[in-house]
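Researcher: For the annotation table, I need structure tokens for Fumarylacetoacetate hydrolase family protein. Please keep the output clean. Sequence:
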Amino acid sequence: MAYVFPPAPTPTVAVANSDDRLPVRRIFCVGRNYAAHAREMGKDPDREPPFFFTKPADAVVMDGETIAYPPETENFHYEAELIAVIGTAGKDIPEADALSHVWGYAVGNDLTRRDIQLAARDKGRPWDLGKGFDRSAVIGPVHPVSETGHPEEGSIRLTVNGEVKQDADLAELIWGVDEIVSILSHSIELRPGDLIMTGTPAGVGPLKPGDSCVVSIAGLGEITTTIGPRES
């Protein structure tokens, strides 16, 4: 058998304090998982079942990269997020066992074409083009659970050009990582290399060319993204 054209390379992310790379299989994202952010998006923060959307694996951007301002948007947003990385496959995972399937955690930035997302949302259409565009998932080095444990509280913060825009605590997550993993696994079999972006706090807002965006999470370090000129 021969491929009719070369297969795409496997997307990977860094592993903290190692030269190893972690292959990315899929990226799942949890929508409106902080009450204050749900309110700022005009939605009720009551503890309804979480909902999910996805980004393609090759949307991954490494820490320290410059990305072009994406096309077809005038409202390009940042979203600081804790990322859980699946290391052990499973389906119908009990909540009590869910954290044993997590290999590690990372700092992330769920870049969003907000105008496209909201236009789709208001028409009851999928969010794909607002969320799953090229280079829309900034993922920092993954820290193994064996070194960090499972973060349940601690600062999550985002700055733009040194000005604090998002400042919250992981304890404010509506749905914890154990609950998210369990719920998602009842719909889709999770596999090693699946990444879960767990939601963003209040304070989302726009980025423009020339901006430097830094996301930090207690115990996991920080990531920096520079916004370059608009993509032609």
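Researcher: And a one-line annotation?
Model: The longest strand covers residues 221-230.
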